[in-house]
Write a structure and sequence with these properties.
Helices cover 64% and strands 10% of the residues. It is mainly α. The chain folds into two domains: 41 residues, no CATH class; 90 residues, no CATH class.
């Protein structure tokens, strides 16, 4: 219905002003409508921010897809390795390294990873994923154990309510 309106009805109407003349003289496409809407409503900056965020998420998903493909594990073992990479790997000058303590917040690797070093980073992941997985498993065991005055008592880690 919208397409018929834009392609049939709008061109058949007499232009009321110069903007309409420009609209009817041009083949109306999605790109044209988007550009006109951004221009009329003055939302260029919001649109750029939105597309930038979307592109960053897409790049991050593509990177993790490549990382998943190179780890020869499936199921929970793969999940533990990926959690470990996100929790124990930081970057300095665009290069990854294993931290001594788990990171408090995870960050987007593509924000700190130099695009020129992508293949080098993937190679680093291939060499270090098992080490990081062991760190994550060890950390998970520590989280499950609670130290009391009487000794070690098994406990389940409870996340704070959100």
């Amino acid at each position: 219905m919208f397409r018929r309106f834009v392609e049939d009805y709008m061109p058949s109407q007499q232009p009321a002003e110069t903007e309409m003349t420009r609209c009817t003289a041009t083949k109306i496409t999605r790109k044209f409508v988007l550009e006109e809407a951004l221009r009329i409503f003055g939302r260029h900056e919001q649109y750029r921010a939105m597309t930038s965020e979307h592109n960053a998420k897409e790049a991050e998903e593509a990177l993790w897809k490549d990382i998943k493909a190179m780890i020869p594990r499936e199921g929970p073992a793969l999940g533990t390795a990926l959690k470990g990479l996100k929790r124990w790997v930081d970057f300095e000058n665009g290069k990854p390294f294993v931290t001594e303590k788990p990171l408090e917040t995870t960050r987007r690797w593509t924000d700190v990873l130099s695009p020129d070093l992508l293949s080098e980073t993937l190679h680093w992941v291939e060499e270090n994923w098992e080490r990081v997985k062991r760190l994550e498993q060890s950390n998970a065991k520590k989280v499950k154990m609670m130290v009391t005055q009487d000794g070690l008592v098994s406990a389940t880690f409870e996340r704070p309510a959100i």
